[in-house]
Design a protein that fits this description.
Radius of gyration: 16 Å
Shape: globular
Number of domains: 1
Number of strands: 7
CATH class: Alpha Beta
CATH architecture: 3-Layer(aba) Sandwich
Low-confidence stretches: 192-220
Order of helices and strands: EHEEEHEEHEHHH
Number of helices: 6
Distance between the termini: 29 Å
Structural class: alpha/beta
CATH topology: Rossmann fold
Strand order of the largest sheet: 2-3-4-1-5-7-6
Length: about 220
């Protein structure tokens, strides 16, 4: 079994927000006729999808973004899965709107959901697919919170919808062909390692400069 986790915040209040693009990709995959309906398990909404004879578990943690790791750890421990079978999908304010970036491992880069997953798993050695949601127009923690918990503008929606579609295809590429091929196809040649020939993929993820993510605040689910 392979596990695809989309990060977000539960509830209609957060539907369509920038922070919920991970949920949106999982929902997109779950619309397949080969997917089961969602049910509550592992502090999450879970759907099972069969793809090319392989069983996938689609997971949307219901713990809110800052506590995503608890749900992910429950899934991994229950099925006794290697972390190579885990892909986490989330938003990234450090990437331009709609841009995708896949990494086999790396730092949390300031993202509170990835930070909590790393804390629960005790390692950064798991794959992640980041979807660019653009940076806030002004600096500062309050502006960042408002940005990620805000919805996309009408002119941004076609770009985001295309990114969700491409992210779903990238996730299926990871399932069928592995992380190296997924990185090569998704990240593009500009992000491959130039010093090694015929290497598919990209360098291990580094924490981007100037990374910011909303701080843990009471009643702010970031």
């Amino acid at each position: 079994m392979k596990v695809i986790v989309g990060l977000g915040n539960p509830g209609s209040k957060y539907d369509g927000t920038r922070h919920n693009v991970g949920f949106a990709v999982v929902d997109y995959l779950a619309r397949s006729p080969r997917a089961s309906g969602f049910r509550s398990r592992f502090s999450a909404e879970v759907s099972e999808l069969t793809e090319d004879g392989q069983k996938l578990l689609l997971v949307k943690p219901l713990t809110y973004m800052n506590l995503s790791g608890s749900s992910v750890r429950q899934v991994i421990e229950f099925f006794q899965l290697p972390l190579a079978n885990l892909l986490v999908i989330c938003d990234d304010i450090n990437l331009p709107l709609g841009k995708l970036r896949v990494r086999a491992r790396g730092s949390h880069g300031g993202h509170n959901g990835l930070r909590n997953i790393q804390e629960h798993l005790g390692t950064p050695e798991y794959a992640r697919l980041r979807i660019g949601v653009g940076a806030p127009s002004v600096p500062g923690d309050t502006a960042t919170v408002d940005h990620v918990l805000g919805r996309f503008r009408s002119q941004e929606r076609p770009v985001v919808e295309e990114a969700i579609h491409k992210a779903a295809l990238a996730a299926l590429c990871w399932v069928r062909e592995g992380i190296e091929r997924c990185m090569a196809k998704t990240n593009g040649p500009d992000e491959s390692q130039p010093k090694r020939r015929n290497l598919e993929g990209a360098p291990s993820e580094q924490q981007p400069r100037g990374t910011t993510d909303p701080p843990d605040q009471e009643n702010i689910k970031t």
